[in-house]
Amino acid sequence: MFLSVTTTHRPATDLGYLLRKNPARMHETELSFGRALTVYPEASEDRCTAALVLDVDPIGLVRGKGDAGGLMDQYVNDRPYAASSFLSVAMGRAWREAIAGQSKDRQALADAAIPLAASVTPLPARGGADLVRDLFVPLGYEVTVEPIALDPVRTDWGDSPYVALTLKATTRLSALLTHLYVLIPVLDDRKHYFVGDDELQKLMAKGDGWLEDHPLKELIVNRYLKHRRSLVQDALAQLAGDEGEAETALDAAPKDTAEATIETPLRLHDLRLDTVAQRLKDLGAKRILDLGCGEAKLIRRLVQEKQFEEIVGVEVSSVSLARADERLKRLPELQRARITLLHGALIYRDQRLRGYDAAALVEVIEHVEPDRLDHLERAVFGDARPDAVIVTTPNADYNALFPTLPAGRFRHADHRFEWTRAEFEAWCARIGEDYGYRWTTEPLGPVDDAHGAPSQMAVFQR
């Protein structure tokens, strides 16, 4: 993938001073996951283009070569080819001074608005071309979004989820690069690295002066911070100039605020947790896995029952896990001794999770990319293989009855899919057949004759 920046400001070759890269030669920047090349396809007094070409090592991403860290579980993926957080990292390394608006020899030019055009391709557009425009138009850009066909020969296959993006504006180079630095991974919505407090501070710094007034700031914050609930709440509080109330808001309200607002009149959050806790009790289970435990709300219900002798919570978000641990410390010592919290991703096999009586996945599966759901299935039903598994997920049929939910939209920005009742039944049938579980489903919440209940639950038993 590549990013190019073009200017017609005379002398156009002064772009090299802004990027601190001489147009007369190629520049290579070593990265933990590959290398970035800065080249100049054209360089004249009238027009100059700099291109940042990223060469990602796909083997290193999977095998953990060097500092790549084994980020992927499949050799065949789009990371070496699609503009993503890898490209933002490369920009931050190769064009650091330009993003910061610093130029040793041309500071006045760095501070000036000049005619610029930027192109990024192929750019994942998770949300479609309309989202791309909605992100960049409010920032003053002329935006061109061109779809990229799945196959240039088989046009009947339609378009891919990738686009070629071109932006034009008279602006400071640092502003253009900063907007791309933040919004490229927002559009991709699949950051490759851990997101913590430092990333929150980076967003506040890069978003200063434009993010607080952006009409899609909540979506930007959610995606940039990888949907880490407490970080998102802190960021939005800071953008609203209300930092002092951030912690209060976190303690007082559910973290999936969009979904919670939609579902609040039905009290679905409490209903799901109470129902799952009761089903686990009815199953006679004693050793429980809460997979995707979040901030331990189900665990705090389960620990009240002496029947549950061992409760293990597993969560991929270290921020949520830390908050869960902090809140569980308030429990009596005897209750706390029955609880273990583990940091782990549910799409990977984990021998620590084998041999339990039951597992619960409460509103978890819809947060998994569809192309990775089979990894979760193998890890939970095939490898951990508890005697019983309880799964809850939204019922997409019911979405039409939520007055504040636009047609075709999911209840939460982090949902990768929402299944109808028929789709959920088909998935349960396949799981039962593939992994040797019998299963039943039941509605959660008030049942509408045409649309069913707002949520649905399956109980799998071996």
From TrEMBL:
Record has Signal as a keyword: no
Cofactor(s) in the UniProt record: Mg(2+)
Pfam families with a match to the protein in the record: Hen1_L, Methyltransf_12
GO molecular function, a single term: small RNA 2'-O-methyltransferase activity
InterPro entries: 3'-RNA_MeTfrase_Hen1_bac, Hen1, Hen1_N, Hen1_N_sf, Methyltransf_12, SAM-dependent_MTases_sf
Listed EC numbers: 2.1.1.386
The reaction(s) this protein catalyses: small RNA 3'-end nucleotide + S-adenosyl-L-methionine = small RNA 3'-end 2'-O-methylnucleotide + S-adenosyl-L-homocysteine + H(+)
Keyword line: Magnesium, Metal-binding, Methyltransferase, RNA-binding, RNA-mediated gene silencing, S-adenosyl-L-methionine, Transferase
Segments forming domain Hen1 N-terminal: 1-240
GO biological process: regulatory ncRNA-mediated gene silencing; RNA methylation
Positions of the Methyltransferase type domain: 289-378
PANTHER family: HEN1 (PTHR21404), SMALL RNA 2'-O-METHYLTRANSFERASE (PTHR21404:SF3)
NCBIfam families per record: bacter_Hen1 (TIGR04074)
Family that this chain belongs to: Belongs to the methyltransferase superfamily. HEN1 family.
Record-given protein name: Small RNA 2'-O-methyltransferase
Naturally occurring in which organism (per UniProt): Prosthecodimorpha hirschii
